[in-house]
Design brief:
Helix content: 40-55%
Number of domains: 2
Radius of gyration: 21 Å
Distance between the termini: 45 Å
Number of strands: 3
């Protein structure tokens, strides 16, 4: 509770305004900006993992870029991230040179990886 006193004192000293309905005190973990913060550290929000698992295979360059952007958001939580993401970034490099008729090959290759 001393920590709460310090926090509330700092809020008061800096003339900040808090909304009681949005304050979550004495919690073991809380969601914040797509992460779950808990006493031992930070982990990715499980909803983000479900979203990645349910993501449709990428059919074109824009969809692949979108998927990589989303995965990049949680990259610090991916073990061996280079090994996991590099095949997709290689696809991204190759996709720039693919014609429209070769997008099926991109779709099948990226679905094997994701």
């Amino acid at each position: 509770l001393k920590d709460l006193e310090v926090v509330f004192t700092l809020i008061q000293q800096n003339r900040l305004i808090t909304k009681g309905s949005k304050c979550k005190c004495v919690k073991h973990e809380l969601e914040f900006l797509g992460h779950v913060i808990y006493i031992d550290g930070v982990k990715v929000d499980p909803k983000k993992i479900v979203t990645i698992h349910n993501w449709k295979p990428q059919a074109n360059l824009r969809e692949l870029q979108s998927f990589l952007g989303f995965v990049n958001f949680v990259r610090r939580f991916i073990p061996n991230k280079v090994g996991v993401i590099s095949p997709l970034t290689d696809l991204l490099k190759k996709a720039r040179f693919l014609s429209g008729g070769e997008s099926n090959r991109l779709r099948s290759t990226s679905s094997k990886i994701s």
